[in-house]
Amino acid sequence: MRAIAFASLCALLLPSCQPAATAERRAVATAMRHLETRIAALEAKEGEKATLPPGAASSRIASLRRGADDLEKAELARRRGDAARAASLFQDAVEEVGADELVDVEPLYHHVTAAAVADEPSPAPVAEAPPAPPPVAAAPPAPAPHPQASHAHEHERASLSGAIRLEGPFAAEGGMGVVMLGPASGRWNPRPHRGAVEQRRKEFVPHVLAVPVGSTVDFPNSDPVYHNVFSLSDVKRFDLGLYKNGQSKDVTFTHSGVVRVLCNLHAAMTAYVVVHDEPFAMVTDRGGRFHFRDLPPGRYRLRAWNERAKEMVTREVELQPGATRLYLPMRADQAPSLGPNKEGKPRGPKTHS
Predict the structure, then answer these.
(1) Going edge to edge, which strands form the sheet with 270-276?
(2) Which of 77, 92, 135, 263 could form a disulfide with 70 if both were Cys (CB 3.0 to 4.6 A apart)?
(3) Is the pTM of this model over 0.90?
């Protein structure tokens, strides 16, 4: 069944077309072939009763298959021009198989959350930056420079990569985060877009979504059971009520901040919508890694959030043409827990993330 689906996807991805589109489709087909090869190798090991922990191969095979399915859906959405859906599905694939498996195709699924920087030239660099590591995660493209900006660095761009490093009592629990980046001075206009947080396998997917102020987020139900999506967060309180498979409801987020999303029927379901007013933002991978590409050089204000931390980290960074690497220590002082029900009453100990 998977082989037939994969062959069908390859046929879809590789028709004769414009050279750039053909190259993109070949890259996706190659990534799919890589995942199928990994699955076949693990199935062979499982059949040989290799020295793997009980269930390890089966679990990884299932993750790779889900990731391949998500990548297939992401590519179909991208070709339909549905950038938000493609980005969300690609993030699902990354969560299933890992960023390293899909590093060659991740630039195709950027979802732009950048806003135009107005009335402020790009500042000149003042310090030399160390070499960048290999790319580990996607970042949105930079806004176009102001027409009156200096031409000294017209063709010189900056990048910023690094990772959030959790420290403290709950660091071992891990957690996903968001890094937000904006010029230290100047003005920009938010560019809202439409995002999605899907209910699938009694989980919210993606677990963390970053959107600009003013964006609308869809909450489609893809499960064969009812859900009741709600939030008691001060940034945005809402209750979407009960709705079934195939239905979707949406929420518009008009203020910046972190919104914890819960399900009143399934206590273990948790997601976060991080609403930002910076022109750049990206969700880290599960290792806390981030990578912003193609930025105007200059001084930036950076904010970082992680679900294990009670407080955000804020700092200023100076970017010159080339690559800068940055590690952000963050205190993990927020224990994993079930959220309350929609009346605000506690629902017991944490069972899983």
Answers:
(1) 208-212, 270-276, 257-263, 227-232, 237-243
(2) 92
(3) no
